[in-house]
Amino acid sequence: RKKAYAVAGGVPVEDDELVIQEQRRRNQRQAAKNVEPLKPLIPSVYLQPCTYLVAHPLMTGYFSRSVICILDHTDAKDDPDTNSFGTDGGTYGLVINKMGVGPTGRDRMLSQVIRADAVPEKLRDAFGDCSVREGGPVNVSLQMIHVATPDQDVEHGIGGNVLSMIPPTNASSTSTTENGDDDIPASTAIESDAAIYFRGDVLKGAQAVLDRKIDRDNFSFFVGASCWEAGQLESEIQRGFWLPCRGPPNVCFTGMCEHNTDDVNNRIHNNDNKDTGRLVTGIVAGTKQSDRPRADLWLSMMSANGNDNATLAHLLLKEEYHEDTEACDDF
Hints:
Pfam families: DUF179. By secondary structure, this protein is an alpha+beta fold. It has two domains: 1-33 and 257-331, no CATH class; 36-256, VC0467-like, CATH 3.40.1740. It is built from eleven helices and twelve strands.
């Protein structure tokens, strides 16, 4: 195959190398902000609330391209009174990036997913037209996550468990910079007076909304959940089905993430200034340094799991597949 070259400063650079450089920049721009991989071989690191499970790009079926937030984990114990899963233990979480879609292709509303005779009037008035996400294939009951300040929590008594970001000491530090160095600093949680809660009292939340004490947008709803028996999730992670990550609790609430676009562009600019022998910007047709990341949480979480995982995720996106392009094994 004939090679194409770009010349910068009198130094020829192979086209393939330029493509790889542009792919790395694209991956860095797409990576979710404040998200880092967790050590997959240490269950105690990832079997805790606010761990994000990112489906491997080759996973098919219901969980294909899913992002799950673990909300609870309990080890097997002899005393069922101290174990939310009984004596067997287990893990409970929610898929956070799948909207419930009705027959017309529109997002499903809360009033559409629960029988009218099973919805209290208070709940219907407060949240009836709120969008509902698919939390998983089991336990098809209504799940709620909400945001509240400490004062609101005390005043309205909605309650629930606080979802806290996992400490950075548990991260596996596989994210890389432009030069492949592991020097991206450990991330911190989004600073806010409000906290993310799960397992709160939905009727008390509805009353607070009807009383105009809390904004309705502070509540997020799911139908269904994702559950594993004791030992099942550990086995799936060890076999590579899921990539565990740490990240801000707000990602669970919104199903969206921020990106490091400004930081990445500044880092690329600095590296370009240092490397005067190579032309490394604007080389590949159709790519621009200012390209915005895709609004795809799964892709962003995959991109935060290192350059190789990010490249594989982009490669397997259906919208990027063209039957007339070169085969990936055509070396």
